[in-house]
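ligand=zinc ion
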Amino acid sequence: MCKITVYTNAEIFTQDPLNPKVNSLAVACNEIIDAGESLENKYLDAKIIDLNGATIIPGFIDSHLHLKWLALQKQWINLSNVRSFDELLSKLKEAKTTWVIGRGFSEKLFREEKIPTRHDLDEVVPEKPVLIVRICGHVGIANTQLLKKVGLWDNPEIVEGVEVDSNNKPTGVIKEKALEYVLEKIPKPPLKQYVKLMNEVLNELLSKGLTTVASMNADPLEFYILQCTNTPLKVRVFFDVKYLELILKLMIKGHFGNEKLRVTGIKVIGDGSFGGRTAALRHNYVGSESRGELLITSGVLENIVNKARKLGMLVAVHAIGDRTIEEILNVKESLLSNIRIEHCSLTPPDIIEKLSKRKVFGVSVQPRFRISDKWLPNVIGENSKYAYMFYTLSKKGMLISFSSDAPVEPFDPLINLEAAISDEGIGEKVPINDALKMYTKNGSLILNEKDKGVIKKGYKADFVILNKNIFKEKPSEAKVIATVIEGKVVYGKVS
Ligand SMILES: [Zn+2]
């Protein structure tokens, strides 16, 4: 028998509708065995932890982020705080590395609102390869050296997404598949260093109260690196669809792995981003003839889902524009229930109607986009009023889970929760209890697991202790006192 620990004198928000708020919980081994009032009087031999009025919520579950890029970009130049064109260029000029890689810039935050060109990059760093990636992760700019090094200077046609001028020479702008191609060519750190970077990332996630995360577009190397890490954070993996044939050969099945690291699904890209004007819309972008780029058809998707389903895997499809979501909804009804929609950003009324009738498995959304994409009306026009309808989708009976899409947005769930409930920002705000549910219980369900995200007898003892009650105070002002996974304090301290 395991020893019982009782956490008491706390405000505990359980996400169990039959028992929503209690002041104590009891843990034995790795499970919650009880949630109720003053359990210290019931379990007399238990170890008692008096939390002095602190708040407990289920462990946060981030259903969509990118661990590989969080780890690798630790070695890159952080451009997310850059506020002008000149500042960006001088940061690149100062770089000491042999490959100059920067990530996270947004020209929308620049005073000048202009994007650097290949020529601008060539001028400040002529000798070394340079790549800067937009905050959305879907568009990048490369200098001439980099284009030469990766073979795109002479053969821009070898991959889709390399913008060329009238002489068929790359302009430096690379999008989607081409960007992916280039990122793969950037030398990876040695294995030991990669593992160290990944461990750092996983520990940072724990410190923010995350207990389970899903890493999207994973590759075999990332999966190997994750196996070498030693932190208790639970990781679920969605392999990039380009490894589907390999996975079929290896007969890797959904739920392959263990409680700590497990394979859950396949990730497919259906379109791009609003910011990069590559999300597939049903109407034109403001001031342009373009409707963005649809990168998948329902037929191709059916084929992928068929294969994945045989392995017991979910298929997560990146779909931002309404045209992409509509295309997904053309998939056969019997296969739709195996599809997760990632982002599901633009949902005019007819799409919402269809979504509520033709049920997908679930939808993973990013509340912080409400704040970051305030410029959306300037890019997609009037239809921006149909963006980020999380609450309506949820009320229509869809399984909605929150995520950060980090490194696109910060992975701190308290920051993202605040964005979800904020009066500011575009799209719909969500009441705090629903928002918390989308970040905990629904996160577990959308990963096809049923034993997390609720503080209730029989569930895994994964929870977070906060110094403030986020139902009364701004989530961003709360701090994580401790993160507990399967009954063990894995971050912080409880006395
Ligand atoms: Zn993503």
